[in-house]
Protein backbone atom coordinates (compact mmCIF):
# COMPACT_ATOMS: atom_id res chain seq x y z
CA UNK A 1 0.00 0.00 0.00
CA UNK A 2 0.96 3.65 -0.37
CA UNK A 3 1.43 5.64 2.83
CA UNK A 4 2.74 9.01 3.94
CA UNK A 5 5.29 8.56 6.73
CA UNK A 6 6.63 10.96 9.35
CA UNK A 7 10.25 9.98 10.04
CA UNK A 8 11.05 12.80 12.47
CA UNK A 9 9.29 15.98 13.67
CA UNK A 10 9.98 18.99 11.50
CA UNK A 11 10.52 16.95 8.34
CA UNK A 12 8.11 16.67 5.41
CA UNK A 13 6.14 13.45 5.19
CA UNK A 14 7.65 10.83 2.89
CA UNK A 15 5.59 8.73 0.45
CA UNK A 16 6.46 5.03 0.63
CA UNK A 17 5.22 1.59 -0.34
CA UNK A 18 4.74 -0.77 2.61
CA UNK A 19 2.87 -4.01 3.39
CA UNK A 20 -0.84 -3.84 4.14
CA UNK A 21 -1.21 -4.34 7.93
CA UNK A 22 -2.80 -7.47 9.37
CA UNK A 23 -5.69 -6.96 11.82
CA UNK A 24 -5.28 -8.29 15.35
CA UNK A 25 -8.01 -10.30 17.14
CA UNK A 26 -9.98 -7.16 18.13
CA UNK A 27 -9.12 -5.06 15.10
CA UNK A 28 -10.62 -4.40 11.70
CA UNK A 29 -8.66 -3.83 8.51
CA UNK A 30 -10.04 -0.75 6.76
CA UNK A 31 -9.59 0.37 3.16
CA UNK A 32 -9.23 4.13 3.63
CA UNK A 33 -11.37 6.35 1.39
CA UNK A 34 -10.74 9.74 2.99
CA UNK A 35 -8.84 11.15 5.96
CA UNK A 36 -9.38 14.63 7.33
CA UNK A 37 -6.45 16.83 8.32
CA UNK A 38 -6.47 18.28 11.80
CA UNK A 39 -4.44 20.94 13.57
CA UNK A 40 -3.35 18.14 15.91
CA UNK A 41 -1.62 16.57 12.90
CA UNK A 42 0.33 19.81 12.57
CA UNK A 43 1.29 19.75 16.25
CA UNK A 44 2.62 16.20 15.76
CA UNK A 45 4.45 16.88 12.49
CA UNK A 46 5.92 20.14 13.80
CA UNK A 47 7.12 18.56 17.05
CA UNK A 48 4.82 20.43 19.44
CA UNK A 49 3.33 17.14 20.68
CA UNK A 50 6.18 15.07 21.99
CA UNK A 51 7.07 11.39 21.59
CA UNK A 52 5.02 10.22 18.61
CA UNK A 53 5.55 6.56 17.69
CA UNK A 54 8.04 7.04 14.85
CA UNK A 55 8.07 6.24 12.02
CA UNK A 56 4.41 7.22 11.99
CA UNK A 57 1.50 7.36 9.58
CA UNK A 58 -0.50 10.42 10.76
CA UNK A 59 -4.24 11.00 10.45
CA UNK A 60 -7.18 10.42 12.77
CA UNK A 61 -10.32 11.43 10.87
CA UNK A 62 -10.58 8.25 8.83
CA UNK A 63 -13.50 7.10 6.71
CA UNK A 64 -13.27 3.74 5.00
CA UNK A 65 -14.69 0.29 4.41
CA UNK A 66 -13.99 -2.80 6.50
CA UNK A 67 -12.30 -5.47 4.36
CA UNK A 68 -11.36 -7.95 7.11
CA UNK A 69 -11.98 -8.40 10.82
CA UNK A 70 -10.14 -10.16 13.63
CA UNK A 71 -11.67 -13.16 15.36
CA UNK A 72 -13.06 -11.07 18.24
CA UNK A 73 -14.04 -7.98 16.20
CA UNK A 74 -17.62 -9.07 15.77
CA UNK A 75 -19.43 -5.73 15.60
CA UNK A 76 -18.36 -4.96 12.03
CA UNK A 77 -18.29 -7.08 8.89
CA UNK A 78 -16.64 -6.73 5.51
CA UNK A 79 -18.33 -3.96 3.54
CA UNK A 80 -19.34 -1.84 6.55
CA UNK A 81 -18.42 1.84 6.30
CA UNK A 82 -16.75 3.06 9.48
CA UNK A 83 -15.02 6.07 10.94
CA UNK A 84 -11.88 6.05 13.08
CA UNK A 85 -11.36 8.96 15.52
CA UNK A 86 -8.44 10.28 17.61
CA UNK A 87 -9.10 8.01 20.62
CA UNK A 88 -7.74 4.64 19.55
CA UNK A 89 -7.75 2.59 22.77
CA UNK A 90 -7.95 2.82 26.56
CA UNK A 91 -7.22 0.47 29.44
CA UNK A 92 -10.98 0.09 30.22
CA UNK A 93 -10.40 -0.46 33.97
CA UNK A 94 -8.83 2.67 35.53
CA UNK A 95 -10.83 5.18 37.59
CA UNK A 96 -11.27 7.40 34.52
CA UNK A 97 -12.52 4.62 32.26
CA UNK A 98 -14.87 3.29 34.95
CA UNK A 99 -16.39 6.73 35.59
CA UNK A 100 -17.20 7.63 31.98
CA UNK A 101 -14.04 9.72 31.54
CA UNK A 102 -12.07 7.43 29.27
CA UNK A 103 -10.74 10.52 27.47
CA UNK A 104 -8.48 11.04 30.52
CA UNK A 105 -7.15 7.45 30.71
CA UNK A 106 -3.41 7.50 31.43
CA UNK A 107 -2.91 4.52 29.14
CA UNK A 108 -4.98 5.82 26.25
CA UNK A 109 -3.41 5.55 22.81
CA UNK A 110 -4.29 7.81 19.93
CA UNK A 111 -4.74 7.30 16.21
CA UNK A 112 -2.11 8.96 14.09
CA UNK A 113 0.09 9.54 17.16
CA UNK A 114 0.85 6.24 18.92
CA UNK A 115 -1.13 4.17 16.38
CA UNK A 116 -0.66 4.42 12.63
CA UNK A 117 -3.43 6.49 11.10
CA UNK A 118 -5.19 7.26 7.86
CA UNK A 119 -2.62 8.91 5.58
CA UNK A 120 -2.45 5.53 3.84
CA UNK A 121 -4.48 3.22 1.64
CA UNK A 122 -5.21 0.81 4.51
CA UNK A 123 -5.19 0.98 8.29
CA UNK A 124 -6.16 -1.20 11.24
CA UNK A 125 -8.19 -0.04 14.24
CA UNK A 126 -9.71 -1.47 17.40
CA UNK A 127 -13.33 -2.16 16.43
CA UNK A 128 -14.54 -0.92 19.84
CA UNK A 129 -13.32 2.59 18.99
CA UNK A 130 -14.78 2.79 15.48
CA UNK A 131 -18.11 4.38 14.59
CA UNK A 132 -20.66 3.59 11.90
CA UNK A 133 -20.86 6.56 9.52
CA UNK A 134 -24.37 8.06 9.21
CA UNK A 135 -26.12 7.53 5.90
CA UNK A 136 -26.29 10.60 3.71
CA UNK A 137 -22.71 11.72 4.32
CA UNK A 138 -20.34 11.07 1.42
CA UNK A 139 -16.86 9.97 2.48
CA UNK A 140 -15.41 13.42 1.78
CA UNK A 141 -17.95 15.24 3.96
CA UNK A 142 -17.93 12.60 6.71
CA UNK A 143 -14.21 12.80 7.54
CA UNK A 144 -14.28 16.15 9.42
CA UNK A 145 -17.06 14.88 11.68
CA UNK A 146 -14.60 12.49 13.35
CA UNK A 147 -12.46 15.06 15.15
CA UNK A 148 -13.42 18.60 14.20
CA UNK A 149 -17.00 17.56 14.85
CA UNK A 150 -16.43 15.43 17.94
CA UNK A 151 -14.04 17.77 19.74
CA UNK A 152 -16.18 20.73 18.73
CA UNK A 153 -19.28 19.02 20.10
CA UNK A 154 -17.56 18.15 23.41
CA UNK A 155 -16.34 21.76 23.69
CA UNK A 156 -19.83 23.08 23.02
CA UNK A 157 -21.34 20.84 25.70
CA UNK A 158 -18.87 22.36 28.20
CA UNK A 159 -20.52 25.76 27.69
CA UNK A 160 -23.83 24.64 29.18
CA UNK A 161 -26.80 26.65 27.95
CA UNK A 162 -24.83 29.74 26.92
CA UNK A 163 -26.99 31.79 24.58
CA UNK A 164 -24.27 34.15 23.35
CA UNK A 165 -21.32 32.02 22.25
CA UNK A 166 -17.94 33.31 21.10
CA UNK A 167 -15.71 31.14 18.90
CA UNK A 168 -12.04 32.10 18.58
CA UNK A 169 -10.44 30.63 15.47
CA UNK A 170 -12.89 29.83 12.70
CA UNK A 171 -11.65 26.66 11.04
CA UNK A 172 -12.77 23.05 10.74
CA UNK A 173 -14.16 22.58 14.27
CA UNK A 174 -15.70 26.04 14.45
CA UNK A 175 -17.67 25.76 11.22
CA UNK A 176 -19.29 22.57 12.53
CA UNK A 177 -19.89 23.92 16.05
CA UNK A 178 -21.53 27.04 14.66
CA UNK A 179 -24.11 24.91 12.87
CA UNK A 180 -24.88 22.88 15.99
CA UNK A 181 -25.10 26.04 18.12
CA UNK A 182 -27.45 27.71 15.64
CA UNK A 183 -29.62 24.55 15.62
CA UNK A 184 -29.78 24.83 19.43
CA UNK A 185 -30.94 28.46 19.23
CA UNK A 186 -27.68 30.09 20.30
CA UNK A 187 -26.12 33.21 18.80
CA UNK A 188 -22.57 32.77 17.52
CA UNK A 189 -19.90 35.49 17.51
CA UNK A 190 -16.81 34.57 15.46
CA UNK A 191 -13.30 35.88 16.10
CA UNK A 192 -10.61 35.50 13.44
CA UNK A 193 -7.07 36.61 12.74
CA UNK A 194 -6.88 40.39 12.22
CA UNK A 195 -7.78 41.26 8.66
CA UNK A 196 -9.00 37.78 7.70
CA UNK A 197 -12.12 38.97 5.90
CA UNK A 198 -12.51 35.65 4.10
CA UNK A 199 -12.77 33.73 7.39
CA UNK A 200 -15.21 36.34 8.69
CA UNK A 201 -17.36 35.96 5.58
CA UNK A 202 -17.24 32.18 5.98
CA UNK A 203 -18.31 32.50 9.64
CA UNK A 204 -21.32 34.58 8.68
CA UNK A 205 -22.22 32.03 6.00
CA UNK A 206 -22.12 29.37 8.73
CA UNK A 207 -24.63 31.31 10.84
CA UNK A 208 -22.56 33.71 12.96
CA UNK A 209 -24.49 36.86 13.83
CA UNK A 210 -21.23 38.81 14.05
CA UNK A 211 -17.67 38.21 12.86
CA UNK A 212 -14.61 40.32 13.60
CA UNK A 213 -10.97 40.05 14.48
CA UNK A 214 -9.76 38.70 17.80
CA UNK A 215 -8.70 42.15 19.04
CA UNK A 216 -12.26 43.48 18.87
CA UNK A 217 -14.96 43.37 21.53
CA UNK A 218 -18.18 41.70 20.40
CA UNK A 219 -21.39 43.78 20.29
CA UNK A 220 -22.84 41.71 23.17
CA UNK A 221 -21.23 40.20 26.26
CA UNK A 222 -20.59 36.50 25.77
CA UNK A 223 -22.09 33.86 28.01
CA UNK A 224 -19.30 31.51 26.98
CA UNK A 225 -16.41 31.26 24.56
CA UNK A 226 -14.57 28.40 22.88
CA UNK A 227 -10.97 28.87 21.78
CA UNK A 228 -9.91 26.64 18.89
CA UNK A 229 -6.91 28.68 17.75
CA UNK A 230 -3.67 27.54 19.48
CA UNK A 231 -2.80 31.05 20.63
CA UNK A 232 -2.55 31.45 24.40
CA UNK A 233 -2.98 35.23 24.13
CA UNK A 234 -6.61 34.63 23.18
CA UNK A 235 -7.49 33.40 26.67
CA UNK A 236 -7.32 36.84 28.35
CA UNK A 237 -9.15 38.33 25.37
CA UNK A 238 -11.94 35.77 25.70
CA UNK A 239 -12.19 36.34 29.46
CA UNK A 240 -12.59 40.08 28.89
CA UNK A 241 -15.41 39.42 26.42
CA UNK A 242 -17.22 36.96 28.71
CA UNK A 243 -19.84 37.98 31.25
CA UNK A 244 -19.71 37.09 34.95
CA UNK A 245 -20.51 33.46 35.54
CA UNK A 246 -19.42 32.53 32.02
CA UNK A 247 -17.00 29.84 30.88
CA UNK A 248 -14.06 29.92 28.49
CA UNK A 249 -13.29 26.52 26.97
CA UNK A 250 -9.89 25.77 25.45
CA UNK A 251 -10.72 23.25 22.75
CA UNK A 252 -7.25 22.42 21.42
CA UNK A 253 -4.70 19.79 22.45
CA UNK A 254 -1.86 22.32 22.31
CA UNK A 255 -1.68 26.06 22.95
CA UNK A 256 1.14 28.56 23.16
CA UNK A 257 1.91 29.96 26.61
CA UNK A 258 -0.84 32.01 28.20
CA UNK A 259 0.34 35.50 29.18
CA UNK A 260 -0.25 36.87 32.66
CA UNK A 261 -3.55 38.66 33.12
CA UNK A 262 -5.25 40.59 35.94
CA UNK A 263 -7.39 38.60 38.34
CA UNK A 264 -10.29 40.99 37.76
CA UNK A 265 -11.06 39.45 34.35
CA UNK A 266 -11.34 36.00 35.96
CA UNK A 267 -13.19 37.21 39.04
CA UNK A 268 -16.99 37.12 38.96
CA UNK A 269 -17.14 33.32 38.94
CA UNK A 270 -15.83 33.04 35.41
CA UNK A 271 -14.48 29.57 34.64
CA UNK A 272 -11.58 28.46 32.44
CA UNK A 273 -11.42 24.83 31.42
CA UNK A 274 -9.83 22.62 28.79
CA UNK A 275 -11.21 19.82 26.67
CA UNK A 276 -9.07 16.68 26.45
CA UNK A 277 -9.65 14.20 23.65
CA UNK A 278 -13.11 12.63 23.38
CA UNK A 279 -15.15 9.72 24.62
CA UNK A 280 -17.05 7.15 22.59
CA UNK A 281 -20.23 8.58 24.05
CA UNK A 282 -19.38 11.94 22.48
CA UNK A 283 -19.10 10.19 19.15
CA UNK A 284 -22.38 8.36 19.50
CA UNK A 285 -24.25 11.52 20.52
CA UNK A 286 -22.75 13.78 17.87
CA UNK A 287 -23.08 11.34 14.98
CA UNK A 288 -26.74 10.88 15.96
CA UNK A 289 -27.48 14.63 15.99
CA UNK A 290 -25.41 15.66 12.96
CA UNK A 291 -27.85 14.28 10.34
CA UNK A 292 -30.81 15.90 12.09
CA UNK A 293 -29.41 19.44 11.81
CA UNK A 294 -28.05 18.52 9.21
CA UNK A 295 -24.40 19.49 9.66
CA UNK A 296 -22.78 20.35 6.35
CA UNK A 297 -19.00 20.21 6.16
CA UNK A 298 -17.09 22.53 3.84
CA UNK A 299 -14.07 20.63 2.56
CA UNK A 300 -11.06 21.18 0.34
CA UNK A 301 -9.84 17.86 -1.07
CA UNK A 302 -6.21 16.89 -1.67
CA UNK A 303 -4.80 13.64 -3.06
CA UNK A 304 -2.86 11.46 -0.63
CA UNK A 305 0.43 12.34 -2.31
CA UNK A 306 -0.22 16.04 -1.61
CA UNK A 307 -0.40 15.60 2.18
CA UNK A 308 2.54 17.98 2.71
CA UNK A 309 0.88 20.63 0.55
CA UNK A 310 -2.35 20.21 2.52
CA UNK A 311 -0.52 20.56 5.85
CA UNK A 312 1.20 23.71 4.58
CA UNK A 313 -2.16 25.19 3.59
CA UNK A 314 -3.58 24.38 7.02
CA UNK A 315 -0.50 25.79 8.74
CA UNK A 316 -0.83 29.03 6.77
CA UNK A 317 -4.53 29.50 7.53
CA UNK A 318 -5.49 29.02 3.88
CA UNK A 319 -8.27 26.48 4.43
CA UNK A 320 -11.90 27.52 4.81
CA UNK A 321 -13.61 24.63 6.56
CA UNK A 322 -11.62 21.42 6.53
CA UNK A 323 -8.85 19.87 4.43
CA UNK A 324 -9.39 16.20 3.52
CA UNK A 325 -7.11 13.69 1.85
CA UNK A 326 -8.82 11.64 -0.83
CA UNK A 327 -7.11 8.28 -0.62
CA UNK A 328 -9.38 6.01 -2.67
CA UNK A 329 -11.40 7.32 -5.60
TrEMBL record:
* Cofactor(s) for this UniProt protein: Zn(2+)
- The Enzyme Commission number assigned here is 1.1.1.1
Any one Gene Ontology MF annotation carried by this entry is: alcohol dehydrogenase (NAD+) activity
SMART domains xref list: PKS_ER
Q: What class of enzyme is it?
A: oxidoreductase
For this protein, the record's Pfam families field holds: ADH_N
This protein's UniProt keywords: Metal-binding, Oxidoreductase, Zinc
> Gene3D superfamilies given for it?
Medium-chain alcohol dehydrogenases, catalytic domain, NAD(P)-binding Rossmann-like Domain
CDD domains for the chain: CAD2
Q: Which reactions fall under this protein's catalytic activity? A: a secondary alcohol + NAD(+) = a ketone + NADH + H(+); a primary alcohol + NAD(+) = an aldehyde + NADH + H(+)
Cellular component annotations (GO), alphabetically ordered: cytoplasm
| Enoyl reductase (ER) domain ranges (all copies) | 10-325
Q: Which domain of life is it from?
A: Bacteria
- Give the family, as the similarity comment puts it: Belongs to the zinc-containing alcohol dehydrogenase family.
What is the protein's name according to its record? alcohol dehydrogenase
Amino acid sequence: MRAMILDAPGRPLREIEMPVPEPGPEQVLIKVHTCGLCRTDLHIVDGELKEPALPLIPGHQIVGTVVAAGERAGQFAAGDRVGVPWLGSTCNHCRYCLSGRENLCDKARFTGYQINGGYAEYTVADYRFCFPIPEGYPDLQAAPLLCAGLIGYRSLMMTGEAGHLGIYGFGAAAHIVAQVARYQGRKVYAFTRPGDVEAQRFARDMGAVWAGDCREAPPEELDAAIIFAPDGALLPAALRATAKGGVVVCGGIHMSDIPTFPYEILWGERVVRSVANLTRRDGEEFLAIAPKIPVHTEVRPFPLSAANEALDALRGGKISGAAVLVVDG
